[in-house]
Amino acid sequence: MEYDFLVGIGGVSMSGLAELLRQAGHKVGGSDVSSTGHSTAHITPDITRLIITSAVSPDSPGWVEVEAAKKLHIPVKRRAEVIGELMRDKIGIAIAGTHGKTSTTTIFGRLLEKLGADPTVMVGGSVPGWDGGLRLGQSGYFVLEACEYERQLLDFPAKHALITSLEPDHFDTYATEAELMETFRQWLATFQKDSHLVVCSDEPRLADVLGRFPGQVHWYGSRGERDELRWTAVDIHPESMTFSLRDEQGQTHRVETALTGSHQAANLTGSLLLLKHLGFPLSQTLSMVGNLQLAKRRLEYLGERSGAKVYDDYGHHPTEITATVAALKARYPERQLVLVYEPHQISRTVHLLDQFAAALSLPDETLLLPVYKVPGRDADFPTSTDLQQQLIRKMTNCSLPLQNYDDCIENIQNRLSSKIVVLTMGATAVHKVAETLVGGKQEAQRD
Fold first, then answer.
1. Do residues 336 and 446 make contact, with C-beta atoms less than 8 angstroms apart?
2. What is the pLDDT of residues 343-382, one digit of tens each?
3. What backbone torsions phi and psi does residue 371 show, to the nearest 5 degrees?
4. What is the pTM of this model?
5. Contact at 8 Å (CB) between 402 and 411?
6. Which candidate, 40, 62, 42, places its Cα nearest to that of 53?
C-alpha cells in the first residue's frame, strides 16, 4: 500500500487531498504546524512520497520534513502534481482565472450536485455542507479550482474549463504579464478537440490566450456581441439579487438568487453556460439558483453588533476589493461602509500600489493594517509599515495607521450603530476582527 505523507495536512486544500487519497486506497499521514508540529521524527522510511504545497519553503517550519525525506530518498511531490494524477481518468472540469475561482467552482459544483450529477469538487475554501473544501462524489465529474500560481495550471489535465478573468497577479511567479498569458496559452493547448471552454468577454486579455485551444470556445459577459449568455440589469436587494439573462435566441430570463454583486452574476452566468454545453439546459438549471451558498469568507455575513452589520471577505486584489465594496454599497445604500483591510504580500502591494489606493478609497472609511509579509515569498524591503504609509498617503479616506487587530477593534467598537456596515477583508486572519466584533470565539490577534 502506498503511504503518502502530507506536510500541512490541516489546510483546506491538503485535508481534501488527504481524503481523496484515502478513497484511492492509499495510507495517508501528515503534519501541521497547529496540531502535530513539524519534525524530522515524522519522516520514516516506509513513506512512499512526501506531498507539499507552495506554502512549504526553506523559510517555513515544514521544510525540515522535506530535508528529512530527501535524505531518505523519498520523492517529494507538489500538491498540484498529485491532484493532476487523480483527475487524469475523470471528466476534469477546471475553473480558472485571476478572480472568482473559489466562488465559481462552488457555484458550479453546487449546481451539478442539485442536478444529481454527484461530482467530486475541490475548492480553495471551506464550503458549508461539504468536507471543508472537498465534495467527494461517485460520478466521473471532477471539478477543480485551478490556480495559476507557480504555474499549477499546467499540472491539471482537464477536459473542459471556465476562465473568469485574467489580470496581473502572483508577481513572485510572473515577472511580466506576458509570462502569465503564456502559461494560460500552454495550458489551453493541452485540451482536446471535443473540449468546451467558457470565457468571460468582459476581460479583454482572454481573447489573446485562446489561439492554441483546439476545442469549442463559448463566451459570456455583460456587453459582448458574441456572448451566448449575457447578464444585465443587476438589482441588489437586502436579501437577494435579481438580474436579466439573455440567451442566443434573444430570450430574456429573469434570475433571482441569494448571491450578491455583479461579479457573482458573472460567475453564475459562466457556470450556467458551461453546464448548458455539458448537456444541462437553462430550462433545468435556472430553477436551482435561488439559494446557492458560497464558501466561507466570500462576502460572508457574520452577524450584528450594536445594530451594525458585520461581513468578512477573502479578497486581496484591487479588482476584488472594488467589486465587493460595490456589492455591499448596493445592498446597504443608506449605511456607511467601514472597511478593515490587511494587505497580503509585499510584492503584490508594490506592483499594484496605485490600484490598491484607488480601490481602498471607495468605502466611506478604511482602517488599514500593515502589509502582511508572506514567508518565503517576499523580500525584506520595503517594509510592511513603509508600504502602509505609502498607501495612506495615496488614499482619500484613511489617515490613521493601525498596527494590529486589537487596534482596529478599539477604534471601531464604540461607534458601531445601525448606520454602519463593517467589512473585514484580506487573505490573512483579519476575519478575527469581525468575529470578535460579533462575539466569535476567536481572539483578535495577528498571526
1. no
2. 999 999 999 999 999 999 999 999 999 999 988 788 777 8
3. -70, 130
4. 0.95
5. yes
6. 62
